[in-house]
Amino acid sequence: MRRAIQRREVIVNKQTLTIACICAFTALRMFFTFFFFVTSVICIVKSGSRIEKCKGQVSFSQKTIDALDTTSTFIETTFSSLLIFLLYRWKWFHFKNFLKALPKQRSAWSWAMLWILRIVTNVLIDIIPSVKNGNYMLVVLGISLSFEFFSTTIFACAIQFVFLTQVTRWINLYFTDAKCRFIWLYRIVLLTYGFRLLSLFLYDSFLVARHIVRESEYKSYDQILLVLDAGYRGSLSYFFFGKFFEFSIPEEEEVVREVQLEEPNEEREAEGRGEIRVDPENDRELDSLALLGESLLA
Questions:
Q1: Taking CA 196 as the corner, what is the angle to CA 245 and CA 107, rounded to the nearest 5 degrees?
Q2: Torsion of Cα atoms, 248 then 242 then 70 then 226, to 10°
Q3: Distance CA 64, CA 62 (A)
Q4: pLDDT in tens, 213-229
Q5: 118-127: which pairs have CB atoms within 8 A and are 24 or more residues apart?
Q6: What are the transmembrane regions (predicted)?
Q7: Sorting pLDDT into bands at 50, 70 and 90, what band is 59?
Q8: Is pTM, for the whole model, over 0.70?
C-alpha cells in the first residue's frame, strides 16, 4: 500500500514538473513571438530601402535582434522536441504505428519538400553571406531555423493522429480536479504554434509584397524562396489553428445508440409480434442458389 502511494506521489510530481515546464515554455514562446512580430513590422514599415535591414528603426541593435531571434528558435526547437518525447512516452499514442503511417501522409511529403527548400534558403541567404561577412550569429540562426522547422514539422505530423476526444478522455481519467484547465492548456499550446507560424508567414508576405530582398549574392532567387517559405509557414499555421478549433466528436457507438433510440427498430417490432420479416433481396439470392444446385445435380 505504501509503495503504491509513493509511486502515485512520484507520478504526480513528474506530471506537475512537466506541466510547469510546458507553461514556462509557452510564456517564453508568446513573448518572443510578440517581440519578433512587433520589431519586424516596425522595420518593414519604416525602412525605405529594398534590402532587409533594421538599423535605427527600433531601439535595439541588429545584433541584439539577431541574438533574440536565435534564442527564440532554440526555445522552439527544445519545446517541440519535448512534446515529441512526451508523445513517444504517452501510452495512448502508438509511436510505431505513427512511423508506419507517416509515409502515407500527403501533408508530410509536402512539408518535407518545403523543409528541404527551407534548408536551401538558409544556406544561400543566411549562412553563405554571413560566413563571408564574419557574422556568425546569422550562421547560428540559419542552422537553428532548420532544426526548429524540422521539429515543428515532426510534431505537426504526430499531432494529426491525436484528437481532442482522446485528449479529453485521458485528462478526465487522470486529472479529474482541474480537467478544464488542462484542456485549455492543450489548446493554448496549439494556439501558440499557430501564432508563431502566422507571424513568420506575415513577415515573408510583407517582404514579397514590398519587393524587399535579403542581403545575399542570390537576390534573383530570393523572391521565389520567400514565396515558398510563406507557403510552408502558412500551411503549418493553418493546420495548428485548425487543431485549436477542433471540437469533440461523439464516438461511433454513441451515435449508433442515439440513432437506435430515435428511430424505431422494425425488425425487433416484428419479432415482438411473432412475425418473420422477409427480405426480398435475400429471397432472390436463395432462389438463385437453389436453381444452381438443381442444375448441378441434373
A1: 65
A2: 170
A3: 5
A4: 777 777 778 888 889 99
A5: 118/145, 118/146, 118/149, 118/228, 118/229, 118/232, 119/146, 120/225, 121/225, 121/228, 121/229, 122/146, 124/216, 124/218, 124/221, 124/225, 125/214, 125/216, 125/218, 125/222, 125/225
A6: 17-45, 66-88, 108-125, 137-163, 183-203
A7: low
A8: yes
